[in-house]
Design brief:
By secondary structure, this protein is mainly beta. The chain folds into two domains: 201 residues, no CATH class; 197 residues, no CATH class. Helices cover 11% and strands 42% of the residues. Strands 14, 15, 16, 17, 20, 21, 22, 23, 24 and 25 form a ten-stranded mixed sheet that branches. Strands 5, 6, 7, 8, 9, 10, 11 and 12 form an eight-stranded mixed sheet that branches. The chain is globular, with a radius of gyration of 24 Å. 31% of the residues are buried.
């Protein structure tokens, strides 16, 4: 994964605070304030160039996208297959002008800074939009031995930022503004043609991390996307830039070496869809209806931990099918090991259309999902028991397996 850091000024005391490029929680050690940083719609950063007399800096835009690519293919025998790929990519946001990759190891160590007025130099306006990049990457997944009609493809973005990289022109050659290395030997004329009056501004708002009921500070553990007010004894999550109530629950398991995996349990209202309970095999599924006024309220479960896209979707489907088949208790599992949550609820809801389609009993009408509405009515965090067996976790009720090698974030360990 590509790890970049960014430097912000604390909204309260103006101290410099370093955090991850996609982090949204700013914790200042000087004034001990904790603030949520909410970009609109994404952060715009720049990399400061090395100072040099007489040099005119030009800032080239690059998109940094992180997310999962899903492609649904209808095979010749009318079965369906899904291709997946995890994406963490930085690419140019302008056309025609091509560069050697400027984001080397030395560059990745440099801290990003939010774009603000008054930066010396010229900024090139992005020509390629986020939808363009999403469309390009969503169509790029390939797989061996798979042929058929593509019925759905999408890049479900986890995080997006726009990074302006400094370059300068010397002897009609484009140079890296940080390392002075040559980036392109024949693109100076094309680059000059793209220069125009463009002043980017990174718009974001700072929201103090206070309980909306009592005003006291909210706390969280291991930078998890779940906050707790000790005074009101409530938990909250950031859903669509608003702190929203979230309840916790856990299910008991049996056997040794239990590990509790966090899942976002989303209580949904689905229109044009019916729910089917299969009592003989302790599971459930969904079914399309022609009546769009028909609705059902149901719970779907999405992993709150980062795994490979294929396992992510399989886990959501398996746990959602049987989540109503066991009893749950409120709160956290007592004296048990839990995998930390590191996926926000905003990321989790993006998989819902694909998950609803997987749970439906008529998969050939996938595109009809666009005619159905999905509304989140309630948010819960459910801790589901798995037992450790060699190099995999096995869910104690359904025997669904998650390979340990499927974890994407190497820092995601059981505590």
């Amino acid at each position: 994964m590509i790890h970049l850091t960014a430097e912000f000024l604390c909204p309260r005391c103006n101290s410099i605070v370093s955090l991850g490029e996609f982090d949204r929680l700013l914790e200042c050690v000087q004034c001990r304030s904790r603030t949520l940083i909410l970009p609109d719609p994404f952060f715009q950063y720049y990399l400061p160039p090395v100072a040099a007399a007489g040099r005119e800096n030009i800032y080239i835009p690059f998109w940094h996208l992180r997310g999962s690519v899903y492609k649904v293919i209808q095979n010749s025998d009318r079965t369906f297959s899904i291709q997946t790929q995890y994406l963490d990519s930085i690419q140019s946001a302008i056309r025609s002008v091509r560069f050697f990759d400027p984001f080397g190891k030395d560059t990745l160590k440099k801290p990003l800074k939010p774009v603000k007025p008054g930066i010396q130099g010229s900024f090139v306006c992005p020509e390629i939009s986020v939808p363009d990049v999403r469309s390009e990457h969503s169509q790029s997944v390939t797989g061996s031995g798979v042929s058929g009609r593509i019925v759905y493809h999408d890049l479900i973005t986890e995080a997006v930022s726009l990074i302006y990289f400094p370059v300068y022109v010397k002897n009609e050659t484009i140079h890296n503004g940080i390392s002075d290395r040559i980036l392109s030997e024949d693109a100076a004329i094309g680059l000059r043609e793209k220069l125009e009056k463009h002043t980017p501004v990174s718009e974001w708002k700072a929201q103090p991390l206070h309980c909306p009921q009592c005003g006291r500070d909210l706390r969280n553990t291991n930078r998890a996307p779940l906050f707790h007010c000790e005074h009101c004894e409530i938990h909250l999550v950031l859903y669509r830039d608003t702190l929203t109530r979230c309840t916790l629950e856990w299910s008991s398991g049996w056997g040794g070496g239990l590990v509790f995996m966090p899942f976002w349990q989303l209580i949904l209202e689905l229109r044009g869809i019916e729910e089917i309970i299969h009592t003989n095999r302790n599971s459930r599924s969904l079914r399309w209806t022609d009546d769009l006024e028909t609705s059902v309220t149901t719970a779907l479960n999405v992993p709150a931990f980062r795994v490979h896209p294929a396992v992510f979707l399989q886990s959501a489907e398996a746990i959602s099918k049987c989540s109503g088949c066991w009893n749950s208790e409120p709160g956290m599992p007592p004296a048990a090991r839990c995998l930390p949550a590191d996926i926000s609820v905003n990321e989790a809801v993006k998989i819902l259309p694909l998950l609803v389609w997987r749970l439906a009993s008529m998969p050939e009408i996938f595109n009809s999902i666009r005619d159905r509405s999905i509304h989140v009515r309630e948010i819960r965090m459910a801790y589901i028991p798995f037992r450790k067996q060699k190099k995999k976790w096995i869910q104690t009720h359904s025997n669904f397996e998650i390979p340990m090698s499927a974890l994407i974030n190497p820092c995601n360990s059981v505590h």
